[in-house]
């Protein structure tokens, strides 16, 4: 499952359920999400997975933002040369569509990960299914129910570590 969490409204905006989470799956998911409002500014908070720094994602963002510069060649030159150069391009604050990469081992900072734990606790631990299609439908039903009845922004309660003097 790939999903987007709307931080301001506290709900799932877009979700994709499939057998894989490949570069193509992620890029297609982002493309479907952007089509919700093709003129909007989109900021995606993501972890450090290589699929979040892919060639296809760079090409999607460039096309969607009307960026016509030469992107180079993957592994050879330009923006597409490396994961670092692709991440720099994808996180450029001047782009209407951009990605913010959370540090490694900090998934608790990514609010969609917090929502995934809600999905596990409230649905997945308690169900039995006979097929992947049934599982997918139950998840989609849960998303609809959650968005209608429980949607609200997360309230961060952590106030930092106390000084131990």
TrEMBL record:
Residues 15-135 form the Tc1-like transposase DDE domain. InterPro entries: RNaseH_sf, Tc1-like_DDE_dom. One of its GO terms (molecular function) is nucleic acid binding. Gene3D superfamilies: Ribonuclease H-like superfamily/Ribonuclease H. It holds the Pfam family DDE_3. It comes from the Bacteria. Signal peptide: none annotated. This is Transposase.
